[in-house]
UniProtKB/TrEMBL annotation:
This is YdiY family protein. Keywords: Signal. Residues 1-20 form the signal peptide. InterPro entries: DUF481. Pfam families: DUF481.
Amino acid sequence: MKLPVLTVVAAACLSANVYAKDDKTWEVTSEVGAIVTSGNTETTTLKGGIKAKHNLEMWNNEYKLDGIYKEDEIEDADGVKRSERTNEKYSASVQGNYKLNEKHTHFYVYGGHVSDYFGAYRSESVVSLGYGTRFISNETMVLNAEIGPGYKYFTYQDDSIEVDGNGNSLAGEAEGEPIALGKLDFSWQISDNAKFTQLLAVEYGDTNTKTKSETALLTKINGSLQMKVAFNVTNNSDVAADKENTDTETSLTLVYSF
């Protein structure tokens, strides 16, 4: 599964590079990281992503593609060691922001999909529209906020032990519900070579409330290349008894701006 995904990411990077050079309305960044260990413990972790912003007269559009794949060496009851996939997650999203007359305000339309083989839910699709504004805007700090209604369609894991009100298994079943979305996006340009970012997003629904946070520090290596250290937290209020409510991820990646 990881090879086709990495191929798509590489092709998207090449295409984005061509567009970014030919059209200055595009801002494109790609992110990649890999960790491979051997010896007493063998693990392989691959992480990548692409973000593209298209700035037009009346619209600011944003496109995102992210993925992570991890394999660990597992020892079974007979003492035999083998590699086993322990994490695999892909996400894609598109957002269009229609600029309003007031500076730094917009209406947004959003659509996103997450495929997670080991998360609380096997897949989640979200559509939303709402209003966005900027609370802080100065030479070093920016704080943007968005809020609006939406709809989520999600599928339970095939091995889920959750049951409905009648005691029927929800494994592999799909449900949908209206939700409310809110997001805060903060950035602080600490110096010419260092930037701190904090993203907090909440999806509130009757079945589940999902909260996502990313805390990151970016340091510039040269004009186009940065190193990124990030800590991600995803919390689901309602999960199966065999699942954890909170997932965390610490990553070190390289970010290239076209």
